[in-house]
Write a structure and sequence with these properties.
By secondary structure, the chain is α/β, with parallel strands linked by helices. The protein folds into two domains: 8-206, 2-enoyl-CoA Hydratase, Chain A, domain 1, CATH 3.90.226; 210-256, Lyase 2-enoyl-coa Hydratase, Chain  A, domain 2 (Orthogonal Bundle), CATH 1.10.12. Helices cover 39% and strands 19% of the residues. It has ten helices and twelve strands. It has helices at residues 38-53, 76-80, 117-124, 151-158, 161-170, 176-181, 194-206, 210-220, 228-243, 246-256; strands at 13-19, 21-27, 57-64, 69-71, 88-89, 93-94, 106-110, 113-115, 127-131, 135-137, 173-175, 187-189. The strands form three sheets. It has a six-stranded mixed β-sheet with strand order 1-2-3-7-9-12, with helices on both faces. Strands 4-8-10-11 form a four-stranded mixed β-sheet. Strands 5-6 form a two-stranded antiparallel sheet. The chain is globular and about 60 Å long.
């Protein structure tokens, strides 16, 4: 991948590489609070596929342009025109993202509002770095809808059950500070530093053995879905795969030689 943004025909979502092995994906519709339309969904789905296959990318930061909103969710103009289904892709779901099969870690960098489908996109990421002015919410019930893009089951996994159910049933919002207290977000930083802080976190992840990171996350993501016996079996199988990689030899060798490891990702 190069450091350039995506072609002008697809500038609703841009792509850059601010650090080695770190990609920055930006939903670029600030005039619409980065709401998801059809073009955003198909472009983001394509980028997920490309970045997952790119050996030069180990971690991805996802954000919204303009500083006022990560994403306000579905573009209601397209919904009103009968285009609700066009905001999803067959495999990756809403925004071309929420049900995507991803091995690499994705970090949401949230400024301003992350509401409805926008919050569901953030919840589909592995980690969240939030601006101190960020607010999160699933207001669907106030509009006669439900948060069907993952919010109804992902939010109770990230917050205490009572609080998650309250937010879902009332449609009320939670600010970044309260979200941090309850473990919904990884860090709260000044708004001007949100993307930079997410890139720093991504850089620290990208410094580690990429296969080991992917295998570890594969198991950790299923911690709420499988019992201990199944998770132990998956861990043993992952360990066997890791032991056959070049990086498994490189880690101890670099430690003994007192140098930084040179990961090759295989």
């Amino acid at each position: 991948m190069t450091g350039a943004v995506s072609p002008p025909a697809e500038d609703c979502v841009t792509l850059a590489q601010p650090r080695p092995y770190v990609a920055l994906v930006t939903v670029n519709r600030p005039e619409a609070r980065n709401a998801v339309n059809h073009r955003v969904a198909v472009t983001l789905a394509r980028l997920v596929e490309e970045l997952e296959a790119d050996p030069e990318v180990r971690c991805v930061v996802l954000t919204g342009a303009g500083g006022l909103a990560f994403s306000a969710g579905a573009d209601l103009k397209e919904v009103a025109a009968g285009g609700l289904h066009a905001l999803s892709t067959p495999v990756n779901g809403f925004a071309g993202f929420v049900t995507a099969v991803r091995a690499k870690p994705w970090i949401a960098a949230v400024n301003g509002f992350a509401l409805a489908g926008g919050f569901e996109v953030a919840l589909a990421c592995d980690m969240i770095v939030a601006a101190d002015d960020a607010v999160f919410g699933l207001p669907e019930v106030t509009r006669g809808l439900i948060a069907a893009a993952g919010g109804l089951y992902r939010l109770p996994r990230r917050l205490p059950r009572a609080l998650a159910l309250e937010l879902i049933a009332t449609g009320q919002r939670i600010d970044a500070q309260r979200a941090a207290v309850h473990g919904l977000v990884n860090r709260v930083v000044p708004a001007a530093e949100t993307v930079a802080a997410a890139i720093e976190l991504a850089t620290s992840i990208a410094a580690n053995a990429p296969v080991a990171v992917r295998e570890s996350l594969m198991i950790a993501r299923q911690a709420y879905d499988l019992d201990d016996a199944a998770l132990f079996r998956l861990s043993a199988e992952s360990q066997e795969r890791i032991m056959r990689t070049e990086d498994f030899q490189e880690g101890p060798r670099a430690f003994i030689e007192k140098r930084a490891p040179r990961w090759v990702g295989r």
